[in-house]
Write a structure and sequence with these properties.
Elements: H1 10-34, E1 49-54, E2 58-61, H2 67-86, H3 101-121, H4 128-131, H5 135-148, H6 150-153, H7 177-186, E3 188-192, H8 203-216, H9 223-236, H10 238-241, H11 267-276, E4 278-282, H12 286-289, H13 291-306
Antiparallel strand pairs: 1-2, 3-4
Helix pairs in contact: 1-2, 5-13, 7-13, 8-9, 8-11
Length: about 300
């Protein structure tokens, strides 16, 4: 019984089984006890009181529950017992029907694929760039986006700190139809090493690099510190961001010369990024969504580029 149990010991197994079964048996016993007088009661039998009397003649009677009411309780307990025999509810016992949430989910997904799969499939052979021009395909892609992508990128695809805006023309990994589709299918993992890893060993070095990064995008900065920061930048940061600071889409390194910032452009935020580094993950959706849905989803995202 316990071979496939997810519990760490049999104690927790019985911790569920005993109170559950005991509770049902206890309810049966309680109802039998409370209804023991109902079958033997006659019209002329004197009903006992609870001993509570008010205003000399107002008493609390100990009338048994009506039979129909007791039967409702019995039916409820029988249904509960049948449920626990057919379905999981007693520790790791799977029930006679072998029902699981995973099986139900897989069945629902299969039913949905059978019902809607042909709708997605009819767009699969058309290029993403062409689908992005078709209102019907864009609407369908938007429905997928609203279901799967809004948690991170927002309902308007405008992004939030740490999750990129998909409506601008700035792409960490590339904005071509193929690159977008690859990002959705296989996911992406961005890695900005911390200052210690980058051999920026003093607060002064970090401050100087921050000033230089500010200067790259034309923001207010200290010129003397930026000059020193450029030297450190060209020794360490250029490997990902390039000597001109315009980034590298092969590595997911952002362009530092524009005014688009994934985490924020304040001096404090840039200092935190350089000091602590950043780890950013775009989950892979290939196995989850499938080729046809991703094709439509990519066309919706690519359609933003056509409206620039």
């Amino acid at each position: 019984m316990f071979e496939n149990s997810i519990f760490t010991s049999q104690f927790w197994e019985w911790f569920i089984i005993i109170p559950t079964v005991g509770g049902i048996l206890g309810c049966f016993a309680l109802i039998i006890w409370l209804g023991s007088d109902s079958s033997s009661k006659s019209d002329d039998k004197e009903v006992k009181t609870m001993g509570h009397v008010w205003d000399e003649d107002l008493a609390e009677y100990n009338n048994p529950l009506p039979r129909w009411w007791l039967n409702m309780f019995y039916i409820t307990l029988v249904i509960a017992s049948i449920y626990l025999i057919l379905y999981p509810g007693l520790g790791s016992y799977a029930g006679l029907l072998g029902w699981t949430e995973l099986k139900q989910y897989e069945q629902e997904m299969e039913d949905a694929d059978n019902r809607y799969g042909l709708i997605y499939a009819k767009y699969a052979k058309e290029p993403i760039a062409e689908l992005a021009k078709r209102p019907d395909a864009v609407r369908l892609g938007k429905s997928l986006f609203m279901t799967y992508c809004t948690v991170c990128h927002g309902s308007d695809a405008g992004g939030v700190p740490g999750y990129p805006n998909l409506r601008d023309n700035d792409w960490l990994w590339g904005g071509t139809p193929e690159a977008i589709k690859t990002s959705i299918t296989h996911g992406r993992k961005g890695n900005m090493p911390d200052a210690e890893t980058n051999n920026l060993n003093s607060d002064a070095d970090i401050d100087n690099v921050v000033e230089y990064v500010l200067s790259l995008s034309g923001k207010k900065h200290e010129e003397a510190a930026a000059v020193k920061g450029k030297e450190a930048f060209n020794k360490v940061c250029f490997a990902c961001h390039g000597t001109d600071g315009k980034g590298n889409q092969m590595l997911g390194a952002p362009n530092l010369t524009d005014d688009i910032w994934l985490y924020g452009s304040s001096k404090a935020t840039i200092t935190e990024t350089i000091t602590k580094g950043r780890q950013n993950i775009m989950p892979a959706h290939g196995e989850f969504l499938g080729e046809d849905k991703i094709h439509l989803l990519a066309s919706y995202i690519y359609s933003f580029s056509l409206n620039k």
